[in-house]
Amino acid sequence: MFNRKLLSEFPIPLKLMLLGLLLILGMFIASFVNIILATVLGIDIHTLSISETNESILFAKVSQVISHLFIFIIPSIFFCYLIKQKHIKYLKLDSKPVFLLFIMSVLLIIFSLPIVDFLMKINDKMQFPEFMSGVEYWMSSMEEKTLELTIKFLKVESIMGLLLNLFVLALVPSIGEELLFRGVFQRVLQEGMKNLYMPIIISAFVFSFIHLQFYTFLPRFFLGLILAFIYWKTNNLWYPIIIHFVNNSITVLLQYADSRGVIDMGILEDTYFNSLYIVSISVLVVVTLLILINSRTKKKATD
């Protein structure tokens, strides 16, 4: 039997290497499981982004849950098991969220939406030099395929379809990605760095980069900074999970409302998200909320 206490004393670079190996192993297992499942069901995984059948779209959603399970959730939990016996405590999941901080966290992500959309428009105008045209084409192709699949994911009209999307696109990613990027990766960085802000920046950068959606890198990096900051200040992983879930849920719910004719996303983006006045107010509110959260967590720490 291996000595978990010995593994817990690994230097930070070795811990990161161990985490990386677990992620790579998880990717192989997820790919293997998805290929086996697709073969059994007779689905061509290479045509998922262009397939319109309900069976293919449902398989794509199941495949995403499998991928999150083996790439994010299981490696994170197993990593904690290897280095700490009390992995729930290591992940900072052992204390309940404070109601006031919970409300401020939810408001923070809601008022961040205009900033996210503004950054997305800036990111969308990104152009590469001529000699990098091949890289730009590859990135653009990946973005288009991801966008096509996302649109098909979100295109539902029933309550059951909505609930499934909230589970696949909001709940599962918010748990899996926060376990990995904040609960484990940022925690390991914080243990090994004297600079308090570098773990926040690095974890946010990796969080955005690993999605391989480069035309939405800036807004995702911004969200990563908020998630990382909240985790650092509250020392509680439930807050980033809640924020992440709310952010993804808003997208799912807005698209559902649009498909039902309740709202018009085109008009909403033109009149709300495109307004610099709204973006400016959003920045002021977000900064105010961050200051309040910072003040509240400082007070809590001294109580």
Write the layout of secondary structure elements.
Elements: H1 4-8, H2 12-41, H3 54-83, H4 87-90, H5 99-111, H6 113-124, H7 133-154, H8 159-192, H9 198-209, H10 217-234, H11 238-259, H12 265-273, H13 276-302
Brief synopsis:
The chain is built from 13 helices and no strands.
Give an overview in words.
The protein has 303 residues and is mainly α. It has a domain of 171 residues. 79% of the residues lie in helices and 0% in strands. α3 runs parallel beside α8. The longest helix is centred in the middle third of the chain and has 34 residues.
Which band does the percent of strand residues land in?
under 5%
Radius of gyration: 20 Å
Q: What is the SS-derived class?
A: mainly alpha
Query: What distance lies between the first and last C-alpha atoms, to the nearest angstrom?
Result: 43 Å
Output the keywords.
303 residues; disordered C terminus; 79% helix; 0% strand; mainly alpha; single chain
